[in-house]
Amino acid sequence: MATLDSSQRLKKELGLFDVFAISTGAMFSSGFFLLPGLAAAKAGPAVILAYFLAGILILPAMFSKAELSTALPRAGGTYYFLDRSLGPMFGTIGGLGTYFALTLKTAFALIGIGAYASLLYELPIKPVAIILTLIFIGLNIMGAKETMKLQRGLVAILLGVLAVFTVAGLAYVVFQQPAEITKPRLTPFMDKGFAGLFSTIGFVFVSYAGLTKVSSVAEEVKNPDRNIPLGMMLSLGVTSVIYVIGAFIMVAVIPSDALRGIPGVQDPELRPVAAASSVFLTWLPGSLILIVAAALAAFASTGNAGLMSASRYPLAMARDRLLPERFAKLAGKKKTPINAILATGAIMIFFILAFDAEKIAKLASAFQLFIFILVNFAVVVMRESRIDSYDPGFRSPFYPWMQIFGMITSFALILYMGALAIAFTIGIVGACLLWYFKYAHKHMERDGAIFHWFGRLGAKQYEGLDREFRGIMKEKGLRGEDPFDEIIAQSTVLDFSEPTDLETIFRDAAKHLSKPISLSEEEITNRFLQGTLTGETPVSRGVALPHFRAPGITQPKVVLVRAAHPVTILGDDLSTPEVETETKVHAVFLLVSPENDPGQHLRLLAQIAGRVDEKSFGKSWNDAKSSDEIRKVLLREEHFYMVKVSRSGSSSALLDKRLKEIDVPADTLVAMIRRGSEVVVPRGDTVLKAGDRLTFIGEPTGLEELRSRFG
What we know:
The protein has 711 residues and is of the alpha/beta class. The protein has 29 helices and ten strands. Residues 573-580 have low confidence and may be disordered.
């Protein structure tokens, strides 16, 4: 999959709360409303500790997926990460396997609605599950925004009721229930021993697995560098607290025999939340209705989020031709993957009708642990491949020990789940490999980042991967700390009205760059020439972008060149895999960045390329009448403001003032002062004179304040 144009990309409509709602809604269903009784039968009171430790053990997978999602925000999540790191074969295993496991678990969530709904009235379970599936299909086709409206509502209802449950339950156990009742139910705490605890950790671990589902919709998240990791962390924090406190309440208020069941006589409690609330929520009218509403909201939110997340897998795989291309089609004004959604809904309905989804969903949990092993390994591969364009906005802490810990613990949990779960995982892997070698393999022309790692030892690399990652960087845009506006405002402008050649441009630019970057003019010229001759200079829409990184420089530097007569250059067009030759350009933007920050260097390069690709660029560039207007073409209009100091009018307030005496908004600064043909470096004691032209850069709100002050 090369760089996607705007017609192929999903719309970015999801914010921080949407990320939180998807992650949280995907976790609260059977994990809280059905499993505690079954888990207590395996671990006794230590089920409380099992939920806590399971929340700790999910951290490596969460951190790894957060890093990969911020580096590669593409639909398909796990599939895309594994494909681009380990190669298409592992991508197929991760994509198809996770897709079917997620679809099974989503179908199980919809079937599970019946366990709580029957507290109020009997329902035909499977027909209701099918009707809900059809409703969710319709919402997903309407668009992510519409889907998330329902998801937000469901999660809000769920968390509201659970807040009442946990606060009231905790208060009851601590202040009202006699200690002689509570203590026997909590002791001995580990009556099933460490073996019972460890097996239960694996059993309840799946309660947290939904946390990482949001990675499959990363392409639709606004500001993914912030919203994905923060949303996942908030979700895990809230969920862990409710799981642990909720398990404590259920163990403390429900008689042990009722919660755990009696082997051969009585099954474990399958509606533990309702059973617990009947003890301490007697003061609240309609408490049973509230608990049922929360359970229904939990199962429905899991079903809704599951369908949305699962449908992105066939979309992503079809983009790469691992599945028929019709699944990559986006339709309607909302650009939704309608074929992928319909196929996913149909498979869910099939599972609801044909299988005991509960048992298969539990077996699929072992496969999910296997995928977590691969995801943790994927981060190691991406880091060690040292691809400059792998540029995550969030980096996993404690690398690589976090990933190693995650791989070891996931493998240990799989072993504790037993031979049947292992056999089921092997079966899914085998089926995915069969599809890969029978269908997908013949469509493949790429390899994963692992070959870049091997490339350090002499093996082959797939250079198209770096090109694709650069395209993703271009779509993501700048980070808040990137000094794009500042370096453009302070850039040197060279305007050639007479015919010239590329070497002359490089030599003239080198005169302006040699002092700030501590390299000789000859060295700078040769670096630019070498990059151009080896095809490393991007060329797009008549603009060349020579660039390199240098030691001993603290701030990126740019020279903007406008040539009235075309200049011939060899260039590498980022949108095509072949090297271009004999390209004619009218603009050359030369970028030099610090050697120790390749990510920022590529983001700045991508931002310039993005500005060049705008339809209005060519005309604005040619029509610019001065150096300031040339800079203005590249500056983001909402992030800069220029004012001329005069002896009259509102700007006269700046006359004869030192810069440090001027009151400017906290999020703005003076990037440059033009005094005639001279550029004055802004300093605190710089005195402003009539005719000075100040370039302010900063956030839109602060610049708007300056505009209202100076006109």
